[in-house]
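Bug #77: duplicate submission created two jobs. Keeping one. Sequence:
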Amino acid sequence: MRASLAWLFFALGAAVPSVAVLVVAVRAASTESARVREEQLAERVAVAQATKRDVEAALARAKETLRRLEPAAVSRLESRLMAEKPAFADVVVMGAEGQMLVPKPMTDEPPSPPQCLADRAELLKGDRTAARNRIVGGCPHLKSEQGRYLWPLLALERVAEGTTPADVVASWIGEHAARLGAAERAVLRARVAPLPEGVRGAALRALDGPLPLHRTLAGLLTEPPGSDPLEAGLRVHRGRYLSLVRPMPEGGAAGFVVHEASMLGAPGLPAHLVLAAGARGDATDVALTPDLVVHVEPRDGATLDAEARRSGHRILAVGVAGVLTAVVLATVLFARARKAQRLAELRTDFVAAVSHELRTPLASVRMLSELLEAGELRDDERPEVDRILAGEARRLSATVERMLRFGALARGRLSVQKSRVPASCILEDARDRFRKAHPDKELVVDAPEALEMHVDPGLVALVLDNLLSNAAKYAAEGHPYRIEARCDGHHALLSVSDSGPGIAARARRRIFSPFERADDRLSRATEGTGVGLSLVRGIARAHGGDAFVKSTVGVGSTFVVRFPMEGA
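Kept job's structure:
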């Protein structure tokens, strides 16, 4: 009970600082993760600010380039501007009538034959099915009067009917995607949804590709030139895009256009960071105009987030490892301290028990000796007194012998004098000694006549006396006891059995240690020194054998001592 309370108090004492350290470790891990995320954010803010400075410096250089620009042919203007353009801008050259000369538009497709135009008219007022089939069969470039392609829409109708392969439509989209406007792309994205997965994926990848630069800029530069203010001879537009354009004396204009697509494709950022579309509303934004804002973000945000978590987990792991190490060390030290304390208590009990075992027979011897000395005994009482004195003397001798043997064993100096002895003689002698000490208890002996043992008879007798004495003390109601000798291969086995209370499993691991007992509560009610079983195992090992116990709680115990046969 005291041991359980001691361990309980130790557990409570260790739990409080352990939990406190773990709480600190969890907070430190959270703080570390937050610190890493703050560092990542600070890096993106620094990159955004550097990008803003680079953009402003590049735009200032671009303005100087345009101010020094001399009128020239379109090709020369394009070459000059391409050589000195900012990395995040595109070159644009406009004609005198406002048409875009650079970037060059895509080459026109051949005009549709008259028959295709006739079939287009037939779609609205004649045999639509026949006209549709002829258009799908021979008019891949046919457009509506509004300038939108008719072929893919009509071909998709035939795909739904099963008369045109789906991959034919996907192939057409891949070839013509660069010529499709944003509205046409949106319609076709919806229409290709029912196509088989592989074909649909190819078509969607083509439709999601970038628009040709000419088409992109043409879609942006929709505001009339007069709406752009002049700044030192340059027309500057700030809206969905930023343009720096110098009007040419003979008409037209040339300059640079910065838009979302050109910003996102600009180089110069660290490999793990990219510019992304839209504004975040924080310091990672890079704003060129109120409507043209991009921001800096990780190329792989999940990886950076995982890195922040790992950094926190490392702190937590170190804290947990430290707590576990401290708890293990404290537990080991506490266990050793408890063991030392218990050993000290057992040694104290041992001294008290030895003193008691010596004091009782000594007291009897002294009292009877004083009676003899005083001549106070009658002649008819002398035989009984002599018998008691002899018994007490033998008891003293056995106790002292046991202590001497244990001392020699503890010092490693136990001397073994072996001789060949019949096992039955050893067991019968042990039975006779047990009957004299315990006439009220029954003992059964089982030993084959032919079995001989090569042992020290005196030490083996001490082994059997100890085991039988323990049986009488701890299994008082467990008789008849049984002692048995048998041959097991190269060993002779002596066993002492009882049908007493048995020994718990946790006690069986320690009862052969000095000063240990099977049941402390039961042991306190019985006399003994706590070295008997230690002496039994020591004697067995001194012969080259061993001792062990088999026991079932509530059924009984069997102590087995193994001795090697001669020549084994």
